[in-house]
Specification:
The chain is built from 5 helices and no strands. With about 160 residues, it is mainly alpha-helical. α2 packs antiparallel against α3 and α3 packs antiparallel against α4. The termini are far apart. It comes from Streptomyces sp. R44.
């Protein structure tokens, strides 16, 4: 047996000397030096949707798709070219948000359409888009969608 090992003649108690052959244990986890935060983390999927050498509009096509669809809906509402333009325009705006939720779900990288985590973006875009479409279908006069229990709730609260 060599010197310093348990059971050696020089160390009859079997205790290993902390200074022989080993580094002294100074503690557990060493904390990094505190630093100043200078930037925020990019959201999941917040990278480019096209290669870096593509022009800027091609790199941000998911966001542009959603913006063009929403802009078309606002244009229809603003110009009022036909009798149900408000309803159709609002459905287009809701469909734009639902498209954003679908793109956020299926594409690995959506550029600036990624604002928060993938799950939060999908829920936010989906719920808001669904509510806008639902309200556009139920708007008076002459709703395209009637939900009977909502009419009963309205009558109970008003009367």
């Amino acid at each position: 047996m060599s010197s310093g090992t348990p059971g050696a003649p020089e160390n009859p108690d079997g205790d290993a000397s902390p200074t022989e052959g080993t580094k002294p244990v100074t503690g557990g986890f060493k904390r990094p030096k505190p630093t100043l935060t200078t930037d925020t983390a990019r959201p999941e999927g917040g990278g480019r949707a096209a290669p870096g050498d593509a022009p800027a509009p091609a790199r941000q096509w998911p966001l542009l798709t959603v913006l063009v669809l929403a802009g078309l809906g606002l244009l229809v509402v603003g110009t009022d070219p036909f009798p149900q333009a408000f309803r159709v325009g609002a459905i287009l705006v809701g469909a734009a948000l639902l498209t954003g939720a679908a793109l956020r779900r299926v594409l690995p990288s959506v550029g600036m359409l990624a604002v928060r985590s993938r799950f939060t973006d999908m829920i936010t875009y989906g719920v808001m888009g669904g509510l806008i479409v639902l309200l556009a279908l139920m708007v008076q006069p002459g709703p395209w969608l009637r939900i009977p229990f909502l009419e009963d709730v309205l009558h109970l609260t008003v009367t």
